[in-house]
Amino acid sequence: MNTLWVLQTNEQAFLDDCRDFQVYGVRTPNYMGLGQMLEGDTVLLRLRLRQAQTEYSYLGPYQATSQRKKWVKNIENAHGIWQKIIDQGGHTPRWLKKYPWCVFLSPTHEFINDLRELSISRSVKACEPIKSPLYEEILSSLLQSEFLPDSRVNSYRTVRGVWVRSRAEYMIDNWFTERGIVTYYEKAIYLDSFRIVPDWFIPSIKVYLEYLGLKGDPNYDNSWRLKEKAYQKHKITYITLDEKDLVDLDFTIPSKIPQLKAKGILK
Prior knowledge:
Layout: E1 4-9, H1 12-21, E2 23-26, E3 42-48, E4 56-65, E5 75-79, E6 82-85, E7 101-118, H2 134-140, E8 142-143, E9 156-157, E10 163-164, H3 167-178, E11 184-185, E12 189-191, E13 194-196, E14 200-202, E15 207-211, H4 218-233, E16 238-241, H5 249-256, H6 259-262
Parallel strand pairs: 1-3, 15-16
Antiparallel strand pairs: 2-7, 3-4, 4-7, 5-6, 6-7, 7-8, 9-10, 11-14, 12-13, 14-15
């Protein structure tokens, strides 16, 4: 039976390169139990979060492989499945010089390109082999976060069956659904290892939408300033709506998101 490995990083940029280049790197393959990793073992990448309700988020599952990726030019040495890559610059992971011993990663059929949380409370060690039955328990307990109200009193469920936090969000979500526009509600993103929850993401045009329903409240305004600063730092396209925009969504949404008409998504 295959073994499960949890490979950790504390840096968002490190994880991003692991995902983009399908590789994970360490200083030495003899670190902890990594020398026992075999071809075909299952791998989850884990990111330590800052200022979040959960300590970690997980990406995967992948399958460990020694089959080198197209971006790799030269291999200096090998130790089991681990290979020492010579960094010759160019299109390579940013961390490669510091962590040259690499295992390549191949997404499995169950791979989800989204960071997920672990619903079990038990401790899961990184860089150590994980066997059955904990192996299966971990993989079956990975959850994509979704907003669920503590109580259905004063909560709203939209036409497409999504629970939202207010009547205003109910109106906005339904506006997109009734026009056949796919959106993701409160789909978390991770910027500099911080978990940020946008109100909506429109994948067809890669635009985030925020409804500033509590604008004027000092705590809310401060939270929004931090979120907006993160958006701007990472050059994320976003638009905002507030209470006055609800009067005529047929006007305000197309005018604030002209890409909908420009790309033929909205007639």
